[in-house]
Amino acid sequence: MGAFDVVVLGGGTAGMHVALEVAGDGKSVALVEAGLIGGESPFLACLPSNSLLLSAARGEAWEDAVARRDDVTGGLDDSAAALALIEAGVTVIRGTGQITGPGTVEVSPVPGAAAGENVTLAYSDLVIATGSEPVAPPIEGLSDIPTWTTAEALCSPDLPRRLIVLGGGAAGCELTQIYAAFGSQVTLVEAEPGLLPGEPSFAGEILAAALRRAGAEIYLGSPATKAERTPEGLTLALDDGTRIDADRLLLASGRRPRLAGLGLDTLGITVAAGLALPAMTSCLVADGSGRADRPGRVWAAGDVTGITHTHAGRYQAAVVAANIGGRPREADYSAIPRCVFTTPSVYAVGEAPRPGLVTVRADLGDSTRGRLGQDEPGRLELYSDGEVLVGAVAVGPDAAAWMAEVTLAIRTKTPVTVLADVVHAFPTYGEALESAFRELAGTGSRPGMADQEEKRFPLLSELDMETPEDDAIEQHQEVVADETLPAERHEIPFDVNEADAAEQERAVGFDDDDYR
Questions:
Q1: Does 409 map to a domain?
Q2: Number of helical H runs and strand E runs in the chain
Q3: Domain end residue (candidates: 253, 268, 301)
Q4: Considering the domain boundaries, does residue 371 fall inside one?
Q5: What is the pLDDT of residues 277-308, one digit of tens each?
Q6: What is the pTM of this model?
Q7: Which of these, 275, 266, 270, 317, lies nearest to 296 by C-alpha position?
């Protein structure tokens, strides 16, 4: 097929963005993808999951939720994404690429593709963006029972009566809430002592309580050891002797970079099974000798780097494209958000708590917004080195929205003294951040001050508050009932016509600022 400036292996979020940006720089680009152009996120992961979660929150029926999900994902039709690439000047090849040596890739077309023979592509820059794939845990008998991957669960029209979700990470928790909300009897199994094992324990504890309230049963701290097919479905045995019956098992137990069979060894790049590519902050990949500036440069973006977030892949794609285009750029991974879009949602960014960091906590229920909404319990923690924020975790309603400022603060290394002086709108969850910032900066209120203020200015309910109209009526009644006023009518000592009266009535009103 010829020579290209850039060959991209993988057409997911990262690969597609690299191809579009590099083509926009005027370079010739070929993109090789055997699956869906656009990757799993819009078709089999983030978008369908969030669509179903939203439908569950709205109380929609399962059939309506599935129809809405299929409409959002386009019914697994990637033609629009492929067309966008083609219109940008990218050569799209439906197939599987294998590196045959420095500067060359051989592509085997997928069954049904227009070209029936293998083609060889030459490149100056190679971008590896082949994504990740699910990992099946070592459970005896797993291949004999009905299972789902997360992708299969998010595109199926079926609603199992009894479902086991294996894995308590972000995907497992979201899928547990989805299927429990629509009536499945869901059991969530996590081998670690808590859900979201990569985050501080309080996040998993709050989320576990929410999932249990939604009807899910949760088993923690005991791995699954054996699966058996039964006349009614399947039975999963745990290490502690627990046996769980279900109709289907959903595997949400982890993923690994999809690198097998790419031929990386022909470039001197060795990667152990299950591990990520050794990419630098420029997203260049070093070979076994540590060289990255060899002829036929190799770049990596997306899940193959070990950072498995769609937004991170998009960010890395921009870094790769800039460097290929001669605009040197380094990736900064200090503030990459990690989200779980359950109710309540979980938002984490930056470092986890560790010795040497200062930790402050705030409960969302202590904020005016939290008391007004009577929302589910929520909490946040901030982690600082004493000068700037380095990490944060929050659990609460729509946490990703009101925690965005924390992401910016970590990325820009804003001093905590500046953050403590930020004014947040009232009443919002930003109040909880405000008190935490002040505590970090050492400018918080004295102990007991918040309680004293609450006693002086208690939160009023709508029944306690007088409206301007009620107040006006009351004043009018008091005036009429005042017996000290003379009974006779007093004439106004100047002329007033009806037009003047109407104009005055229009000019007199209630200032909204007086009733905040």
A1: yes
A2: 17, 21
A3: 253
A4: yes
A5: 999 999 999 875 555 566 689 999 999 999 99
A6: 0.84
A7: 266
